[in-house]
Amino acid sequence: MRDNGPSMNLWNEAWDSATPIQPGPGPRTWKVSELSRELKTRLDAMGRLQVEGEVIELKVASSGHMYFTLRDLDGRLSCTIWKTAVPTAVRFDLREGAQVVAHGKLDVYVPRGTYSLIVSRLEPAGLGTKLAQLEELKKKLEAQGWFDRHRPLPDLPRVIGLVTSRSGAAIQDFLRTRSARWPSYPVRFVHTSVQGPGAAAEIASAIDRLDASSVDVICVVRGGGSLEDLWSFNEMPVLEAIRRASVPVVSGVGHETDTTLADLVADVRAHTPTDAAQRTIPDRAARIERIDRAEGELARAMDGVIEVRARRLESATRIDLLGRAVVDRARARLDRAASRLANQAPHARLARTRAELERAGSRLAAAMDAELDARSRRIERVAPRLALAGRRELDLRVHRLALAARALDSISPFRVLERGYSITRKTSDGSAVRSGAEIAPGETVETLFAAGSAISRVEKSSKSRPGESET
């Protein structure tokens, strides 16, 4: 072994005798998966975020999920919208190059160590400012009482005004509902744009035109869409036209989840165009049913009135006879009293009493005659109606009797005889013969025809029917 000299030996001795140096504290060593999970936990803690950027690399997978990237001058962020969230998250025409604000949460994909924004809602950039302006206008109109007017809709409007686009699905839904409820019900339609620049002025003009054309109610409708698509119905020209309309206005804009200021200013808010048609177009079948029911109730009421009047007439007749009997008894009492006075009182007193009695009798007779005349007039008024009711009842019973007679005649045995059949019965006891086994040779029988009869003697009888052989 090579000797390195005294210096090398001294170094070896120093190394062997030195105290070992312990390493100081350093950073933690992470496993890859541990670090990814830690990042995921910390990103989850950030909660919901709003990220603005330009849309690039937009792609819709066959599964229905949507993928794109948001970028600005200094960075990029991968974004994902799951299939189930696409209908509510993207409510406008999303294209590459669009500047948007994405709402969602950051998520880490642990196996790859990548992160992305899981988007729950997208809106065009700058929409937040418009929403703030919309909320401010809403509060202002609410404070002024613009949302408090709710005029009732006419039960049977003569003409319904309709404001919408001829090319949209809303008019088809409205007319389809009209066909189901009351085909060809009067609807006066004015075409207008329902979105885009200038649409608000067109909609307001259409409302004013219909209001001046003597319609009874105005329906303003359109199908669903994004907030930008429905924005015209948040603009003041439309709201002012609805406010100054002299007839009730029904707003059926968008779907049930969409709410515009036009919905709040209108007298009635319908969830959809179909709902607007159902609220304004009467149901013809239901009305016919109510009319038929009312007609039946009226007929029953009239029958009841006639029955009551008939009973009153009969009672009045009995009262008339009773009144005459009362007068006769009163006159008899007067005559008896006059006789007693003639025999018991002086002639002067008798004359005064007789005169008083005659005056009382005259007054009583006049009162009874007036009462009898009044009741006679009532009887004369009621008699024709009673007679008419009686004739109707008699005609109905005669008709029923005729039907019963025809039914009875159709099953009469004489009708059977007229078709060539006959009845045979024994001369001994008059019982009907139904089988050849009931009679014996030498026995006499009587045969009845439709006209006349014949008596014959049995020479031979058979138990079997014609054409059958006896066994």
Number of beta-strand segments: 13
Which regions contain 5 or more consecutive residues with pLDDT less than 50?
Answer: 1-11
Can you summarize the main beta sheet? 5 strands, mixed, barrel
Which H/E pattern describes the elements?
Answer: HHEEEHEEHEHEHEHEHEHHHHEEE
Task: Choose one word for the global shape.
Answer: flat
CATH class descriptor name of the largest domain: Alpha Beta
Instruction: Going across the biggest sheet, name each strand in turn.
Output: 1-2-3-5-4
What oligomeric assembly is this protein in? Answer: single chain
Q: How many helices?
A: 12
Structural domain tally: 4
Calculate the terminal CA-CA distance, rounded to whole Å: 145 Å
Radius of gyration: 53 Å
CATH topology of the largest domain: Rossmann fold
CATH structural architecture of the largest domain: 3-Layer(aba) Sandwich
**Structure classification:** alpha/beta
Could you tell me the strand content as a percent range? 15-25%
Average predicted confidence as pLDDT: 82
Helix content: 40-55%
What features would you describe in this structure?
This protein has twelve helices and 13 strands. With 471 residues, the chain is of the alpha/beta class. It has four domains: 32-125, Nucleic acid-binding proteins (OB fold (Dihydrolipoamide Acetyltransferase, E2P)), CATH 2.40.50.140; 146-282, Rossmann fold (3-Layer(aba) Sandwich), CATH 3.40.50.261; 297-410; 413-471, no CATH class. The strands form three sheets. It has a five-stranded mixed beta barrel with strand order 1-2-3-5-4. The protein has a five-stranded parallel sheet with strand order 7-6-8-9-10, with helices on both faces. It has a three-stranded antiparallel sheet with strand order 11-12-13, with no helix packed on it.
